[in-house]
Amino acid sequence: MFGAAAGPLGINFYVWSGWGVIVILTILSILATRNMKLIPSGFQNVVELLIEGLYGLLEGMLDEERIKKYFPLLCTFFLYILVSNYFGLLPFVGYTPESPEKGVGLGIFIPPTANLSVTAALAIIVFFSTHFFGVATSGLKYFKHLFTPMWWMFPLNVVEEIVRPVSLAMRLYGNIFGHELVVGTLFVMVPMLVPVPINLLGTLTGAIQAFVFTLLTTLYIAGATEKHGH
């Protein structure tokens, strides 16, 4: 019913979920900014507290100029991943062990971050953004770090650069997919009460994984744009 095709590309439940997250973020953004006040109140206050809290946690890793420059990207990563992770906590959303594409019960949506393709796409964006910012800051001298501390370390340094996005993608995917699979299994076995504490734990896991991804991205950008490091 909810499957479709766009030429050779299929539109599956993960795509619907991704679009759903975008719609949710768009609506929340409109609600938070439509009547902005100098002294915030209501929903604007909640959103500002969240964003300012994230800004405060990250600003110690970048100087004032760089945190202002790169925070929009970092905040976008955090909010998209956070809402994606929490998508699995909605009613009729998630996995069953027998059919992970169909969800639980009447579920049609699955957290986008429970799909390796989605987390890999996010990690690839981080990978290319990091090197783009590095070149923009230091020019071609940026690539000197691949030959330090000795020129023969070049292969190992290249491997390290490749491992970073792989680690980002696998860590986020593994945690969210694992949580969804556990909840789906418990829902099938004991549908009434047992999945509840696991879902409560998922609220903490979802926030932590969104922050860890954003934190590591900040570290990579900080290293790439450090002018004295090349």
Quick overview of this protein structure:
It is built from six helices and two strands; from the N terminus they run ββαααααα.
Offer a few descriptive terms:
230 residues; mainly alpha; two-stranded antiparallel sheet; 6 helices; globular; disordered N terminus
Question: How would you describe this structure to a colleague?
Answer:
By secondary structure, the protein is an all-alpha fold. It has one domain (4-229). The protein contains six helices and two strands, in the order ββαααααα. It has helices spanning 13-33, 42-58, 64-87, 116-138, 154-189, 195-224, and strands at 4-6, 9-11. It has a two-stranded antiparallel ribbon. β1 and β2 (9-11) form a beta hairpin.
Residue stretches low in confidence (pLDDT < 50, at least 5 long) are: 1-6, 96-107
Can you count the helices? 6
Choose one word for the global shape. Answer: globular
Q: Give the strand order of the largest sheet, numbering strands 1, 2, ... along the chain.
A: 1-2
Number of strands: 2
Question: What's the structural blueprint in terms of helices and strands?
Answer:
Elements (H helix, E strand, L loop, with lengths): L3 E3 L2 E3 L1 H21 L8 H17 L5 H24 L28 H23 L15 H36 L5 H30 L6
